Amino acid sequence: MLKYGIAIFPSKKLQDIANSYRKRYDPHYTLIPPHITIKGMFEVDDEKIKEVVNQVRSIAKTTPPFPLNVYKVGSFHPVTNTIFLGVKNHETLLQLQSDLNSGALEQAQEFSFVPHITIGQKMSDAEHSDVLESMKMMDINHEEIVDRFQLLYQLENGSWTVYETFLLGEDC
């Protein structure tokens, strides 16, 4: 059984911004490019993956492209010492996340959905505090249009790779 997840990879410009911090502050830097997780890790066996892909494809076709606006640096402290680029809630993004966590894809979620791009994690309290304070002074205002998302699977070395890319709005 393989581990899968669903994510949005932003533009190269936004990935470069995130990576300028991730290479120093995110131990997962080499495992996956900067992304917005819209469905956390789930396991599917080889026989059921076609069914999952068909459901995901159907959701993608009826979801229109939408704006992605990154507007702040935030943290999940005190739950975790994770620092992220905050993504504004958008009705279409929230509906997409909800749809991808329903039906055959439904699973219990440990946390409520907060769209973000992780730029630092697994830091000591002191490092987290120092890094967060300096990053909060950054002026962040980036907008782009999301027109696709990816179904990923995890390799044996822990890295993630694209299984399939889904274009948004083919039936809109």
From TrEMBL:
<dbReference type="InterPro" id="IPR009097">
    <property type="entry name" value="Cyclic_Pdiesterase"/>
</dbReference>
<dbReference type="InterPro" id="IPR022932">
    <property type="entry name" value="YjcG"/>
</dbReference>
<protein>
    <recommendedName>
        <fullName>Putative phosphoesterase CIB95_01595</fullName>
        <ecNumber>3.1.-.-</ecNumber>
    </recommendedName>
</protein>
<keyword id="KW-0378">Hydrolase</keyword>
<comment type="similarity">
    <text>Belongs to the 2H phosphoesterase superfamily. YjcG family.</text>
</comment>
<dbReference type="InterPro" id="IPR050580">
    <property type="entry name" value="2H_phosphoesterase_YjcG-like"/>
</dbReference>
<dbReference type="Pfam" id="PF13563">
    <property type="entry name" value="2_5_RNA_ligase2"/>
</dbReference>
<feature type="short sequence motif" description="HXTX 2">
    <location>
        <begin position="116"/>
        <end position="119"/>
    </location>
</feature>
<dbReference type="GO" id="GO:0016788">
    <property type="term" value="F:hydrolase activity, acting on ester bonds"/>
</dbReference>
<feature type="active site" description="Proton acceptor">
    <location>
        <position position="116"/>
    </location>
</feature>
<feature type="short sequence motif" description="HXTX 1">
    <location>
        <begin position="35"/>
        <end position="38"/>
    </location>
</feature>
<feature type="active site" description="Proton donor">
    <location>
        <position position="35"/>
    </location>
</feature>
